[in-house]
């Protein structure tokens, strides 16, 4: 069919409606001793891609991890040699600083791209990222933007990364003083959770990751929250079995949300998994990242739960149970930065975080609050005065 | 359900299989005089998002375009003022260099991110990109990576961008001396094709864009190729009606391919729309971008068609018709860079382009050749000697 353009007048050619559907499949695996020579998981994941072998592989490793696992790089190299029919380590692993520093230095992004180029990594090779959430966010962004997206296998090594950030579809780095200003949506090729890494976490990182589990339980799964509440003391004492339950269930809830929300790439304005996060993001910035993400999220959860209570939604007993659980886990629920500046015009005012959160999501302000434990509700306006009252309650550790 | 972890042994926790489906919808519109005050298209596209108005808007404009359309910025500002109930121009439009220079300067990417930050553009605001394919590639990448992807409305101003690059889902910039080394897949919010911009193209850019139409016709649509062949002389004389047909039909074929290939984000190794492109990309690099993309694609098409003929697939008469059509359109089918270096080890050898192409797509080499006009075939190995014979044929303008 050739158009009859003789009949065309101004503005008349019919628009072409395009609909693009893209499906991403990946698995989140659970294991121990991932680089033990008798652990087949990593090699199998690569072997099963159905393509000619061996495959080129490069790795980016969290420098913080190496402090407690100094033999890791040697073990990884040995694992690669021992599986040389399946994978070829095409360059020396790149070590990057751990923690938020990974996301604050744009040179690291370029270093990873350089590694990809030097090693001749293509869209069917593998970039293996080993580390905490911040490092995986950085490496994920680098992978998503090299050759328009190369395969990344994430090996998260912290509670937070294993149950939340590393199982999802987001990546990002900080820019212009804003958290995750640069980033994209890019599902991983696979996620391999090795519980053994959790042994090497310091106490703060062990605890931090539990905050996201509390969060998703509070908005989605009352039974799971009860489990966390019942095991809070055990978890604080680093009970590994309880922690494995928390990670598995939390990862599953996050994955279910992404798969069933109908908005995996967050084109709308609703983001229930960011319950407690508007304040958390701002507090991380206000403390210059002295506060770890999970610690900030715990305060954010406490704050938004208290606000939900003050608004007359969340019952008093449930509110108390939330605060008690967070405290039993070992979280501090008040820091001076909450009240440092009360004038919204001041850049260091906590409540600027509301608008920064809105701006990052886009569209109108959409906050998730609690009606009951396990039952979320969205609101589009909040009262600052009520939030100030909530902070005042949190400042009293006896509440 | 809480897991019975007592029963867990090493490697035993069941993997979680994740499936993420994402759907993108956008329209490609055709118009004239897009910033005429009585043209409602742009305002309507924004008005129809169903969200609170007015919306914040920023624009990035191709500096090359302003040379022939010096009043464009004033007209655009006036259009925004006249539709202030729907959109607010939140910052002065940013002008960037046109052509491949746009993709070779990483500072421009940062400039656009800075603009997004300065203007407080969120995921529900609009970045409007006005220009040729290279500028739209740059701005598309910036938009895809700011706040994990802000809305972009593409207003392509060249034949090539209107019928090919700007209607699709890809963006990118050059890095490490490689074309599109950095980039992502990110569908636009909308594409607005204004035919009036084509009047301001120089002869080379007018012609260049037709190469992609010849390409997609050759692999997909014999009838469309016949149309181009029949109208080649008219097109070379800048007949606007014939060009509009070419653009509409070519855009539609590209969009159909993306929607129905089952691999819109190119996770496999097959990329039929890159017929003729392995040589084209290399020739652009070898000529230091003296050759425009479409001019390089025309040579690539001629080369791969000649190879298809020499391999005994494409009939002699059809091969001749392809070369004649390209020549009638005004394309040169031979340049010295085709034979400059015959040793594959030399970085300037044309045939290095085969491996660079494979590496960018990933996996095994997959080239599209022609069985007949309108009928493609994929091959995974090629004979360099046959390609050398093909080049030798092309060097003889009488063939």
Question: How is the secondary structure organized here?
Answer:
The structure is a homodimer of 399-residue chains.
Chain A: E1 16-31, H1 41-47, E2 55-62, H2 63-68, H3 72-82, E3 87-89, E4 94-96, H4 101-104, H5 106-118, E5 126-131, H6 133-145, E6 151-156, H7 159-163, E7 173-175, E8 178-182, E9 190-194, H8 203-208, H9 210-220, H10 222-230, H11 232-236, H12 240-260, H13 277-286, H14 293-310, H15 316-329, H16 352-361, E10 367-372, E11 375-379, H17 384-394
Parallel strand pairs in A: 1-9, 2-3, 2-4, 2-5, 5-6, 6-9
Antiparallel strand pairs in A: 7-8, 10-11
Helix pairs in contact in A: 5-6, 9-10, 9-12, 9-14, 13-14, 13-16, 14-15, 14-17
Output the keywords.
homodimer, 399 residues, Rossmann fold, Dehydroquinate synthase-like, alpha domain, 2 domains, disordered N terminus
What can you see in these coordinates?
2 copies of one chain form a homodimer. Chain A is of the alpha/beta class and 399 residues long. Chain A has 2 domains: 27-201, Rossmann fold (3-Layer(aba) Sandwich); 206-394, Up-down Bundle (Dehydroquinate synthase-like, alpha domain). Helices cover 44% and strands 17% of the residues of chain A. Chain A contains 17 helices and 11 strands. The first copy, chain A, has helices at residues 41-47, 63-68, 72-82, 101-104, 106-118, 133-145, 159-163, 203-208, 210-220, 222-230, 232-236, 240-260, 277-286, 293-310, 316-329, 352-361, 384-394; strands at residues 16-31, 55-62, 87-89, 94-96, 126-131, 151-156, 173-175, 178-182, 190-194, 367-372, 375-379. In chain A, the strands form 3 sheets. In chain A, strands 1, 2, 3, 4, 5, 6 and 9 form a 7-stranded parallel β-sheet that branches. The first copy, chain A, has a two-stranded antiparallel sheet with strand order 7-8. In chain A, a hairpin with a 2-residue loop joins strand 10 and strand 11 (375-379). The longest helix of chain A has 21 residues, at 240-260. The radius of gyration of chain A is 23 Å and the shape is globular. At the A-B interface, strand 1, helix 5, helix 6, strand 8 and helix 12 of A face strand 1, helix 5, helix 6, strand 8 and helix 10 of B.
């Amino acid at each position: 069919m050739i158009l009859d353009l003789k009949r065309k007048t101004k503005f008349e050619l019919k628009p072409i409606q395009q609909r693009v559907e893209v499906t991403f499949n990946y698995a989140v695996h659970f294991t121990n001793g991932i680089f033990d020579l008798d652990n087949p998981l990593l090699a199998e994941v690569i072997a099963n891609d159905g393509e000619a072998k061996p495959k080129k592989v490069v790795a980016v490793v969290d420098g913080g991890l190496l402090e407690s696992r100094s033999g890791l790089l040697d073990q990884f190299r040995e694992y690669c040699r021992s599986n040389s029919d399946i994978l070829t380590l095409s360059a020396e692993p790149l070590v990057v600083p751990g923690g938020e520093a990974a996301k604050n230095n744009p040179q690291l992004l370029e270093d990873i791209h350089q590694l990809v180029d030097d090693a001749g990594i293509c869209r069917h090779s593998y970039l293996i990222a080993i580390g905490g959430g911040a490092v995986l966010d950085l490496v994920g962004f680098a992978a998503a933007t090299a050759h328009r997206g190369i395969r990344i296998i994430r090996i998260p090594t912290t509670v937070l990364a294993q149950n939340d950030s590393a199982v999802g579809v987001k990546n990002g780095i900080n820019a212009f003083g804003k958290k995750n200003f640069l980033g994209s949506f890019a599902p991983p090729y696979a996620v391999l959770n090795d519980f053994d890494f959790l042994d090497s976490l310091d106490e703060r990182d062990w605890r931090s990751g539990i905050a996201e589990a509390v969060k998703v339980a509070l908005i989605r799964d009352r039974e799971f929250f009860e489990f966390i509440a019942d095991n809070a003391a055990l978890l604080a004492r680093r009970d590994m079995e309880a922690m494995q339950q928390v990670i598995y269930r939390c990862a599953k809830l996050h994955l279910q949300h992404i798969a069933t929300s109908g908005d995996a790439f967050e084109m709308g304005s609703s983001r229930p998994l960011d319950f407690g996060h508007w304040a958390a993001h701002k507090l991380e910035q206000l403390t210059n990242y002295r506060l770890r993400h999970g610690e900030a999220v715990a305060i954010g959860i406490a704050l938004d739960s208290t606000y939900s209570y003050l608004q007359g939604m969340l019952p008093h007993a449930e509110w108390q149970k939330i605060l008690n659980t967070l405290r039993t886990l070992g979280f501090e629920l008040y820091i001076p930065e909450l009240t440092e500046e009360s004038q919204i015009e001041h850049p260091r005012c906590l409540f600027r975080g509301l608008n920064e959160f809105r701006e990052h999501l886009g569209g109108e302000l959409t906050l998730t609050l609690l009606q009951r434990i396990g039952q979320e509700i969205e609101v589009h306006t909040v009262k600052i005065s009520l939030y100030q009252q909530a902070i005042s309650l949190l400042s009293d550790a006896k509440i």
